[in-house]
Amino acid sequence: MKIYAGIDIGSCTTKSVVIDEQGNLLGSDVRRSGIDYKTVAKESLETALAGKSLEGVPVVSTGYGRHNVSFAIQAKTEIACHAKGAYFYVPRAVNVVDIGGQDNKVIRLDAEGRTIDFKMNRKCAAGTGTFIEEIAIKTAIPLDKLDELARKSQNKVKIGSYCTVFASTEILSLICSGVKAEDLSKGVFDSVVARVLEMIPLADTILLCGGVVAWFPIVAEIFREQVKGEVIVPPHPQLTGALGAALFARETTF
Amino acid sequence: MEIKAAQQLKGLMKQHFMELDEASRTKNKKIAWCSSVGPAELAMSLGFLVYYPENHAAMLGSTRTAMDYIPVANANGYSPEICSYLTSDIGAYLRHETPLTKAYGIKEVPRPDVLLYNTNQCRDVGDWARFYGREFNVPVLGINTPHTQNEAREHVVKSVSQQLRDIVPDLEKVAGRRFDIDEFRAVLARSRECSVLWDKVLDTGSHQPTPLTFFDECIHMGPAVVMRGRQEANDYYKALLAEMQERVAQGVAAVPGERFRFYWEGMPIWGKLRNMSELFARLKAPVVVSTYCNSWIFPAFDPANPFDSMAEAYCSIFIGQDDAWKENYIAEKVKRFAIDGILFHDARTCASNSNNRYGMSKRLSDKLGIPHLVINGDLNDLRCFSEEQTVTNIEAFVEQIEESHRENIRRH
Ligand code: SF4
After folding, report:
1. Considering only CA atoms, which of B397, B329, B298 is closest in space to residue B36?
2. pTM over 0.95
């Protein structure tokens, strides 16, 4: 059986995916990227291969560290790979929204899966995974309780700032005014969605991917409330880019 | 591949600064500081040597020393949100430093006898000149041009022509000599020739493959900015033009294997010029035309009618027009240069040169059927620029164009 691999070295986490010729997921791995991209790439891929040899396996790399993977046959941008991975799940015109650790991407695809345009936001961490993490630390709410807590919210709290530092200040003043932890948590997720909706007008079908959606399913629910079109979350939202890379590997060696 | 004329260029720029330095030290000539599209020719006709703070600021940008100086100006009340040419230049002045020392052994920037500006490009040039007016205690003479809207053009040009006439007596006083209209005509004629030649150089970029890129042009535009009106600039562009024409005739590509061609709208990112140049070369997708390098072309100059035509020329620059005019301008270039995509540089500290901000990028893409990409950065302030993000955006943009070309080939 021929197998293909994709590796997505993101700013926060590294994701690896191994697929067969049909695109079936054979193995995967997610881990912190750390500071040694070369080693983390190798270790992550070996885990995803689950004992199979890396020898002769076509690998395409993507993400921040895409140019650091010596064994990759090609490096592709995370835009191209997310588009590819998303279209594999939803083969029609779709808006791909990736909410990552340090950036957001919105990619508009036409019915054939071609990129019409894309936008990346990395000016500030507001609206990204890092922002959520930072707020969790500041408020001493455990990260894995945030989703559950937010679901209990009864009162809307608005966090409007573009900037993480300003948003943190807004949160501090909310805390001072005695706002409840659950309302605050929900407000944080609302603001993440608001930052994405500011990037590009989103109509029709949206496919959500990236780590934030994987960790906090409530984000998808907020999207569903806010947009008219269908909101789809693929089975492994965080692996979309790595899957796209693996699909590119399959394409180039077919 | 190295452009041969680059050696000559180095000599010319050195001559420009050495002359200014000598004048500053010996007072053998008067010195006017002038905004880049200010009334330079008028001053030259009165015997002034002209120094351009914007050119100095671009040197601060390309040497990346701007990053040491911008915070100094910020601390002295000049916001990080305003022109980073201004803030880096003023910061360097406050620190008594200049890249001219390293480049030419010049101790300090030449002292001005008068400061000239024209707000045809932005308000910042006026604020910048007034700062130095206070520092050096010399007269500041400004031409105030509103951002010309097509409908008001005639009135604006008339007013500017009058303003140009009005500064002559003050200039005479500083120069210590009488204004001679024939001298003025002669300078204008030479400046016009410089425009024509520079235009021809830039137009060689319309050939496929292009013999030069935007990044080469940013360097070779030096004489068109700081020595226009002087014969040496014209001689230089004749040589550069001949070299480019030879490249075209022999099919020599600035970027071997040229696949796609880009338009660059907005300011260069001076501190990253080389990196950007290498990136586009690696992607085999040169930037072949820009608004910026085309901004020092003034075909309206007419020695027979010097004041009015100078007013007309300096009111006609791209930066001062309305969006409809700008869009037509870009559309024509896109066609002539066979452009595959437009890059809009949104320079954080220069609103006047960041044309994407009012929807133009989308309008042009819709109208021309070609994609665009907005690059967030700045001319001098690298705190506003993420290289990694920009590289990814540009690579993804090339992938997008690649994909659509592949599809088109498949369909036909
Ligand atoms: S046009 Fe922009 S870069 Fe040039 S002087 Fe004005 S603000 Fe500065």
Report:
1. B298
2. no
